Please model this.
Amino acid sequence: MAAAAPTSSARTSPGRRTAPRGAAAAPQPRPRPRVVAGGGARAAGIRWDRVGRVALLVVLVGIVMLYAGPARSYVDARREAGVRRAELAKLQRENARLRARKAELGRPAALEREARRLGMVRPGERPYVLQGLPKGP
Model:
């Protein structure tokens, strides 16, 4: 049942010798690394995986920069629109107050009251000026 062991020439590549069975195998000398001028062994080749990552990062930063300007303009426009809406509401309230005052001053009684507040008198009336009174509440 035991299978025959293959011959040494069948198991190894041509020109390579193996030690006979049972004998200690002699350590094979390692080939010396090639030294390239100007750097280590890694400096000779381009790391394409890193180049791809850097290029992807540059493209991503470029896209972000393209969106940053319009996004800032959009935020500024929204803020400015809010300020203008608040100003518009304030001016509309003031306009409504002034329209109501105009309508009130159209009545003769209100007109006379305002004229007297300004110090005016009717023809034939004698004006009196009181001095030393305390200021109003």
